[in-house]
Specification:
The complex is a heterodimer of chains A (431) and B (273). Chain A contains 18 helices and twelve strands. Chain A is globular. Chain A has a six-stranded mixed beta sheet with strand order 2-1-3-10-4-11, with helices on both faces. In chain A, strands 6-7-5-8 form a four-stranded mixed beta sheet. Chain A has two domains: 185 residues, Periplasmic binding protein-like II (D-Maltodextrin-Binding Protein, domain 2, 3-Layer(aba) Sandwich); 197 residues, Periplasmic binding protein-like II (D-Maltodextrin-Binding Protein, domain 2). In chain A, helix 2 packs antiparallel against helix 14 and helix 9 crosses helix 11. By secondary structure, chain A is of the alpha/beta class. The N terminus of chain A is likely disordered. Chain B is mostly helical. Chain B folds into two domains: 52 residues, no CATH class; 206 residues, MetI-like (MetI-like fold), CATH 1.10.3720. Chain B contains 13 helices and no strands. The mean pLDDT of chain B is 88. The chains are: A alpha/beta (431), B mainly alpha (273). Chains A and B meet through helix 1, helix 2, helix 3 and helix 12 of A and helix 2, helix 6, helix 10 and helix 12 of B.
Chain lengths: 431, 273
């Protein structure tokens, strides 16, 4: 089935570009758009619409439950509108710039949200944050735009790590590595046993390789440099970036050669079947695992390369923002307050099968050993980054995909690849 | 020798049709596997499980009933309206000496040569201006608008070749223009209308692009975006999606079987003109 995917993705990708075009044209079009009186314009006491990209059955059911709960509380009414996540991604700019947009949206925190905020498309939700005093500072910073107001309300986050099967590690007689040297030694051991040590899935899902780039960069150069690089304040052809790839080359011989051909979902299958040793991936991959394998999963943190660099981890944060044009800001904020509360977050974590950590520090995460370990790892981190596209933009992601896939194929051409990457990134930053 | 050739022909054709049917069979088989089976052994492996629960999941959780109704609500009026309008336009353009008729026809055809992608944003903004955004009316209007040029072109070619004497005879018998159109031209154009009807049904039914451009509420979505909606953000239940695809294919297959004959003639419609 995945064979059909690339065409659709590429096709939707074009749609996405078209959508971005809509943003550019919006200032011109808003003049005519605002003159159209929306026929379904809800009055200030009307139902709040929440546009959701959580289309997987469990997550969708969880959201339906939350909205139903909210509606029984008498603080307003809300209706849920679930759109296929791929469609949502490409249509979001259109939704936000339309004359009569939906009120709330599920989306990502950080630079993606800030980008919309800088176009005055997002509602100031500082009021909601007044009741979120106990949220960690890192989440507050992540939800604040350039002008200092909060525009995002986080729901949950998750982590990335090297996942493996406990039973397989026991069978092979190997331990979790702590440092890069340990890690390479582990790879060598696995390889000598005839197992491709590092699984990856780049066919159809080339963005998975960005996790390697992100992690190597925050381990070698640190999170601040990484953020600046992704914001266009540093150059991809910098020697510091090249150092990342020099490290990566040490691990490259241990990658599963088949990983270029299949998507990460099949790489998950390969890992579970013991055809690869370990797999650097986000916790969402567990949704692609059969239920009986879940208890056997464990992970370790991306190995430390330079102990002097403050520890940073990737923790993509999901949540909500509201349209600046909402007809019912009070209702939208009431719903946001409810969604950021302990009760809603616990209900969501319980109902959705995914391994996620609630954003509210008082809400209890699932008490499975895996989640406890993941939470401890994030708590220990000095800095949190999210993921390549979330810390930059969806427009920069393809430049990374091209560069990284090329590097994995032809590591000795790294200088040319980085030059091209810088050129591609400059085009994106110029808009 | 002759026997050998027939045998060779049949073996070759059987292999060829298997090649064509292979993906279809694969999807049907996948729709009967359980999620854990696919997750443990991959989408390409032989089935180790059997379940029909996937169809229930696609039907109820995926909201396919609602989506199929929406699809029909869009497809049937769109086909009827666009063919009706195209037939009228083709009649006028092919049978009357309207000034600039060639230009009008070429303009309609030229519109078809534009890639629809470049019109996504204008269409979306325009449907907002007219207040039709996020209604099935918008989708019907778009489908009619984009089909009209091509259908008119095809029907124009067909009607132009009908003998002029029939029309003259009807005029002598006292028939007005409207009567000639409904009682003489339309019955004679039936083969072309049937072929175009079958083709446009599948085109409109299978369209995804316009549906996601002018609609944003899940209750309004026709079947194609609903199928897309079965995919998760990262991980998809391929078995449920396969089951949903099988269900979604039923109406088009039914139309195809019913109008099979016209499909083939429809493909040849433009060929001899």
């Amino acid at each position: 089935m995945s064979d059909f995917d690339p065409g659709r993705r590429r096709f939707l990708g074009h749609l996405g570009l078209a959508g971005l075009g809509a943003l550019g044209a919006s200032s011109f079009l808003s003049a005519c758009a605002s003159s159209a009186s929306g026929p379904t314009a809800s009055n200030s006491s009307g139902a709040v619409t929440i546009q959701s990209n959580l289309s997987s059955p469990q997550a969708k059911a969880a959201m339906e439950k939350l909205i139903a709960n909210f509606n029984t509380q008498g603080k307003g009414t809300a209706s849920l509108n679930t759109i296929a996540s791929e469609t949502f991604r490409t249509q979001l700019p259109t939704y936000l710039t339309s004359a009569n947009p939906p009120d709330l949206y599920t989306w990502y925190a950080g630079s993606v949200a800030n980008d919309y905020a800088s176009r005055d498309l997002l509602l100031d939700v500082s009021d909601v944050w007044k009741s979120l005093g106990d949220y960690p500072q890192s989440l507050r910073t992540l939800s604040t735009d350039a002008s200092g107001k909060q525009i995002f309300v986080p729901m949950n986050n998750y982590w990335w790590g090297f996942f493996y099967r406990k039973s397989n590690f026991a069978k092979w007689g190997v331990q979790e590595p702590k440092t890069w040297t340990d890690f390479l030694a582990l790879c060598e051991t696995l390889k000598s046993k005839g197992i491709p040590p590092i699984g990856i899935g780049l066919g159809d899902t080339p963005w998975v390789a960005s996790a390697w780039f992100d992690y190597l960069n925050i381990r070698i150069n640190g999170a601040p440099f990484h953020r600046e690089l992704l914001a266009g304040k540093q150059r991809f052809d910098d020697p510091k970036v090249k150092a990342v790839f020099t490290r990566w080359r040490e691990a490259l011989p241990y990658f599963d050669p088949k990983g270029k051909a299949y998507p990460f979902q099949e790489a998950t299958t390969a890992l579970l079947a013991g055809k690869t040793g370990m797999f650097l991936i986000g916790t969402f991959f567990a949704d692609a695992a059969p239920k009986d394998a879940l208890g056997d999963l464990d992970f370790f943190r991306f190995p430390i390369i330079d102990p002097a660099v403050p520890l940073a981890e990737e923790a993509p944060t999901d949540g909500f923002f509201a349209s600046a044009k909402t007809a019912n800001p009070t209702g939208a904020k009431a719903l946001l307050t409810y969604l950021s509360g302990v009760e809603a977050q616990e209900a969501y974590v319980k109902a959705s099968s995914g391994i996620v950590l609630p954003a509210n520090p008082k809400a209890k995460a699932s008490d499975s050993p895996l989640v406890v370990k993941g939470k401890a790892m994030l708590d220990e981190a000095k800095e949190l980054t999210q993921f390549f596209n979330r810390d930059s933009s969806d427009a920069l992601q393809p430049t990374a995909d091209t560069a990284l896939t090329k590097f994995i194929d032809k590591p000795d051409q790294i200088d040319a690849i980085l030059r091209e990457w810088q050129a591609g990134a400059e085009k994106v930053f110029k808009g | 020798m002759n026997k050998l050739r027939t045998g060779g022909f049949h073996t070759g054709m059987i292999l060829l049709s298997l090649l064509w049917l292979g993906p279809v069979i694969w999807v049907v088989v996948m729709s009967t596997r359980s999620f854990d089976d696919i997750a443990a052994h991959g989408v390409g492996s032989l089935p180790r499980s059997f379940t029909l629960d996937t169809y229930r999941q696609a039907w109820t959780d995926g909201g396919e009933l609602r989506a199929l109704i929406n699809s029909m609500l869009v497809t049937i009026p769109s086909v009827a309206l666009s063919l009706g309008l195209a037939a009228m336009a083709a009649f006028a353009l092919s049978r009357f000496r309207i000034p600039g008729r060639r230009t009008i026809l070429l303009l309609m055809l030229a519109g078809n040569l534009l890639p629809p992608q470049i019109l996504l944003i204008p269409v979306s903004k325009f449907s907002e201006l007219t207040g039709l955004y996020d209604t099935l009316w918008a989708l019907i209007a778009v489908q009619v608008g984009f089909g009209l040029g091509f259908y008119t072109f095809v029907l124009h070619g067909f009607m132009r070749d009908l003998p002029g004497e029939i029309q003259e005879a009807a005029t002598i018998d006292g028939a007005g223009t409207a009567q000639i159109f409904t009682r003489v031209m339309l019955p004679l154009t039936r083969p072309a209308l049937a072929a175009l009807g079958a083709l446009s049904f599948t085109w409109i039914f299978n369209d995804l692009l316009w549906a996601i451009t002018v609609l944003r509420t899940d209750d309004n979505m026709p079947i194609t975006p609903a199928l897309l909606g079965l995919q998760g953000q990262f991980v998809s239940s391929w078995n449920v999606i396969a089951a949903g695809t099988v269900i979604a294919a039923v109406p088009t297959v039914a139309v195809f079987l019913r109008f099979q004959r016209h499909f083939v003639s429809g493909l040849a419609l433009g060929a001899v003109k």
